[in-house]
Amino acid sequence: MISVEDWAEIRRLHRAEGVAIKEIVRRLGISRNTVRKALASDEPPRYQRKSKGSIVDPFVPQIHKLLADSPRMPATVIAERIGWQRSMTTLKDKVRELRPLYVGVDPADRLVHRPGEAAQMDLWFPEPVIPVGHGQSRMLPVLVMTLTFSRWLAAVMLPSRQSGDLLAGMWQLISQVGAVPKSLVWDREAAIAPKGKPLPPVQGFAGTVATKMVIAPRRDPEFKGMTERNNQYFETSFLPGRRFRSPDDFNIQMRDWLAQRANQRKIRSLGDRPTNVLAADLTAMTVLPPHPPSTGFSWQIRLGRDYYVRFDTNDYSVDPTMISRLVQITATLDRLMAVCDGTVVADHPRCWARQQIITDPAHVTTAKALRADFNRIRRQPTRPGEVVYRPLSIYDELFGLTSTTDGSDDVGQESA
Fold first, then answer.
1. Right CATH number for 119-284 from 3.20.20.370, 3.40.50.300, 3.40.50.720, 3.30.420.10?
2. Out of 66, 198, 333, 401, which could bridge 202 as a Cys pair, Cβ 3.0 to 4.6 Å?
3. What is the pTM of this model?
4. What would the pLDDT profile of 195-207 be if each residue is shown by its tens digit?
């Protein structure tokens, strides 16, 4: 076989210098037929070894039969069924080559992201446990938002993955950006769209901020792969070597790192830095609504003698003068408040620990005074052996009835 160097020299001598074939044969010592083949070929000669086949080839018919019956059968099971005793790598390569004939091919389209079009949302669970007070530490979720056009990143740690907290986190991140993307992309998170349809609170949130909720199909992690890859970026570039004293400390460090590093790095596919491209994203987004959406938690309860309300496994005290009255409870990411007839009757920092009792000392003092008044009014001194009779009119008053007889008659009737 002629070498590439001889092939190139033959073509140069004949085409560039006009040397005859006979002279080329004499100069290079190559046969006339070889020179003619070199001049007729437009590509350099390449050595190609004839395929000797594979040690798996005798088993290919059996593999075809197994894949026809069960296209997703693992290679390890196929090895067991065909009695394979040699290298698993060789068998897996062959199975990988044959499997698409039965399961088909799922190509991934190249997406074009337009300014202001979408923001991908996801939950990231960093491994370090965070001190949350009361001697407890927890692994807490972090809500991550990625603007698909500018690749701008925002993130905040949340106390839970309940709907109220997720909506509050989304509003906080959107407020930081200063505008609303035209769509928010979520997977089937249990507190967002467990069955592929956004829950009513999520639909209300989307309507208030004038955006569209886009829910990923089942088993399609590539649908929001951009923010999924950013979670891995946080694992390798943000977490190493860091220590966190509290959720607030985590959020402060995350916010500083995003501003100074993540959103300042040059992204190859973007050809620029997210900070420089963010303005184009903001121009195409929707302005923030005049009134913030409903987020967090809100419910009404009639306060019992145990003047505490329970939220997220913790008990918070309420002014005991509100016992037996309806109280409106509101919980945000930072605080828990109770209001009755327009008056704030409880205001506590939200506790991120579990199974704690959060008490306002003023509520304890008020309860002590109310208890003393109750005992002074209700207790009546009696002599030993004396039986106290109550007029029936007292019970009429308690049940809102009007007595037609006086108290003495009632007592007499009761005695009779």
1. 3.30.420.10
2. 198
3. 0.70
4. 999 999 999 999 9
